[in-house]
Write a structure and sequence with these properties.
- The chain is mostly beta strands and 161 residues long.
- It contains one helix and eleven strands.
- The strands form two sheets. Strands 1, 2, 3, 4, 5, 6, 8, 10 and 11 form a nine-stranded antiparallel sheet that branches. Strands 7-9 form a two-stranded antiparallel sheet.
- Strand 3 and strand 4 form a beta hairpin.
- The protein starts with 5 loop residues before the first helix and ends with a strand.
Length: 161
C-alpha cells in the first residue's frame, strides 16, 4: 500500500493554490433549518447557488496554538514554505446576495466565467459562470447565515491536504 507523503501533500496544496479558486454560497434547502442534512462525498454542486467570489488571499499554514488564524479544530499561522495546509480567504462585498439566506458554501477549482465581464470583477452570479469547475470541499451550516446589505462577509479556511 502506498501513502501520500507530507511533501507530496504540500505539492498537491501548491497545485491547488496555483489554480483559479472560488467560493460559492447557496441558499440550500429550507428544510435544513429543522434537520441539517450533511453534504455527501459525491456532491458536485451546491443545492441552490447564489453566487461565487474569487479567492482574496492564499498561503501556506502550520498548526500553532498562538496562531492568528482560528479554525474550529485549532489555530494556524502563515509560513512562506509550502505545507500541506492551504490557507484560503474569500471576501463577499455588501451587495453580494445582500438579502439572501445562506445555508452552504463550496470551494470550487477551475471555474470559468463568461467572457467580456468587467475587468477586476470578483463576485459572479450563476448566469456569469460559464463552467462551475470542480467542487473540492463543501460545508453546510447548522444555523443559516442571514445576509444584510450593511455587512461584508469573509470566510477563512485552512484546507488540510
Amino acid at each position: 500500500m502506498a501513502i501520500l507523503t507530507t511533501i507530496g501533500r504540500a505539492a498537491w496544496a501548491a497545485v491547488i493554490k496555483a489554480r483559479p479558486l472560488h467560493l460559492a454560497w447557496g441558499a440550500g434547502d429550507a428544510a435544513w433549518d429543522t434537520v441539517l442534512v450533511p453534504p455527501e462525498l459525491g456532491d458536485t454542486a451546491l443545492v441552490a447557488e447564489l453566487g461565487r467570489a474569487s479567492v482574496t488571499a492564499t498561503g501556506y499554514a502550520v498548526a500553532d496554538e498562538a496562531g492568528s488564524i482560528a479554525t474550529p479544530t485549532g489555530n494556524y499561522r502563515l509560513v512562506a514554505e509550502p505545507t500541506n495546509n492551504l490557507y484560503l480567504r474569500f471576501d463577499f462585498g455588501y451587495a453580494a446576495a445582500s438579502d439572501a439566506i445562506v445555508r452552504e458554501v463550496g470551494l470550487f477549482i477551475d471555474t470559468t466565467v463568461v467572457p467580456d465581464l468587467p475587468a477586476g470583477k470578483t463576485y459572479f452570479l450563476p448566469a456569469e459562470v460559464e463552467s462551475p469547475g470542480t467542487l473540492v470541499a463543501v460545508e453546510r451550516f447548522a444555523l443559516p447565515l442571514v445576509r444584510s446589505p450593511l455587512t461584508r462577509q469573509q470566510f477563512e479556511f485552512v484546507l488540510v491536504i
